[in-house]
Amino acid sequence: MKSDLRSYLKEIIGGSISLLTGMWITLRQSFRKPVTVSYPYRTLKLPERFRGHIELKADEQGWAKCVVCMACQKACPSFCIKVNGYKPAGMPRKVATIYILDFTTCSLCGLCVESCRFDALMFSREYNLASFRKEDYVMDMLERLRRRRICRP
Q1: DSSP class of residue 58?
Q2: Residue 6 needs a FRET pair 20 to 30 A away by CA distance; which of 23, 109, 113, 150 works?
Q3: What are the structural domain ranges in the chain?
Q4: Separation of alpha carbons 118 and 131, rounded Å
């Protein structure tokens, strides 16, 4: 009988201490400056090593640096990159005609960027990719490069 009363009192005291600890933390936090940001009116600075989706880089003439070596496509564990191209007459290298990234399956591992020996890929600084349609995440990287007005049409 005494042990039941003793365990009951221990539970009440333990619960009271837990309740007071939680109330103390809440009271202490209520006087601190908020850490939330009023998005989209204000945004936080992205970390230097932020990894967005991949983007193609352009060379001096405005062409995509990609030489269609397929290293990025082979290195991708998610199989989300599709690359194809041809070698035009008078050009020393192949030119990409298709460069599709399916961002719905991309794991942002960075193996494609690391495997590119021609420095043709980089990580995007874009982070606000909200959409209700899956098709918006299947990206034509050559078209995105053209829209940035770096690559020739």
Answers
A1: B
A2: 23
A3: 54-147
A4: 32
